Amino acid sequence: MRALLYNDAYSVTMSDVPDPVIEASTDAIVRVVATCVCGSDLWYYRGQSERPPGSRIGHEFIGVVEEVGTDVGRVAVGDFVVSPFMYSDGSCVHCVNGITSSCVHGGFFAAKGVDGGQGQFVRVPLADGTLVVVPGGQPADELLPHLLALSDVYGTGFHAATTAGVRPGDVVAVVGDGAVGLSGVLAASRLGASRIIALSRNPARQAIATAFGATDLVEARGADAVAEVVELTGGVGVDATLECVGTAESFTTAFALARPGSRVGIVGMPHDVEFPLGIAFRNNVGLGGGLAPARAYLPPLLTEVLEGSVEPGRVFDYEVAFENLAEGYAAMDERRAVKAYARVS
Questions:
Q1: Inter-residue contact 3 to 20 (CB < 8 Å)
Q2: Could you read off the pLDDT of 178-216 as tens digits, one per residue?
């Protein structure tokens, strides 16, 4: 089979690798129909985090179940499934309490010997707890991007909005105009925010933000962005803030935008971040978010997609051939694309 491998900074290549096999009775083998590149993949692509050379990569995929272990009972051969970016058993204390990303027996795809999602087939551990079946069998082609977005990016944006405490009528700020930030705009809109201020200076991303429900666009950065948002809110600040980047500047900006007593929902993977404790303490601003429990959010979000009430796959603005998936990495790294996507089979 073919799969994308990491070689070194700015070098990923499509290569031949062994077909996966059932290793545990709780495994399933999924034939991948579509996969994509995540913003978090760019950290190792740019050499900013460590990655073993020759390792499989990617963690977002949808596809068809080809084989199941003897103890798999909730998914069956032939099912079309969405996989969250982490596997989980669905039964440990953390899963039961909705934090599937902290499953006692779970873990990440493309880590510790588990297949990456950017390949033709993936072995899925703990298949019953991990995979979500899409009713009705193979979906129409136009649904595929929206289903793929449930694997990570929309669930992550939804986590930011939920943990920031977005409520109907709220004024919300979204820091970050990548796919996760744009998904946060959509999630805040679905949760009933009356005003959504998106920090973006990229016309293409602004267009998606507006389509997803943004009412205001702020192109400034840092202190200038804070001043503009504070002015837009009559000197008060926003009711909920979504931090979707993970840099020191984005953290500082997010907490400075938040009105006293509100919350910041963080989902940007932190890199070299110092928590702005002074601002948080002085203004009683709370902190929520973290590694999104995408599996816990998947069933209700899947229902919304199938009903046609949301189209989170609009963040995919760059489709490439599967064999040319490395170009998707380059396009996202160079900000020529919001999120790159490939049909596999």
A1: no
A2: 999 999 999 999 999 999 999 999 999 999 999 999 999
Q: Taking a C-beta distance cutoff of 8 angstroms, is the pair 329, 340 a contact? A: yes
* DSSP-assigned beta bridge partners for residue 287: 264
Summary mean pLDDT of the chain = 96
Burial class (CB in 10 A: 0-12, 13-18, 19+), 112: exposed
Q: Classify residue 70 by burial, with Cβ atoms within 10 Å: 0-12, 13-18, 19+.
A: exposed
Using the 3D structure, point to which of 270, 289, 308 is the last residue of a domain. 289
> Which pLDDT band, with edges at 50, 70 and 90, does 35 fall under?
very high
- The residue type of 148 is L
**249 token code pair:** 């500047």
**CA atoms of 289 and 267, how far apart (whole Å):** 6
Asked if residues 287 and 280 have their Cβ atoms less than 8 Å apart, the reply is: yes
Residues 13, 143 share a domain = yes
- Are the beta carbons of 5 and 12 closer than 8 angstroms? yes
Per the structure, the complete domain to which residue 121 belongs is given by: 2-152+293-343
- Count up the domains in the chain and report the number: 2
pLDDT at 158: 98
Whether residue 273 has pLDDT greater than 90: no
Structure tokens at 343: 């049909």
Mean pLDDT calculated for residue range 119-144 = 97
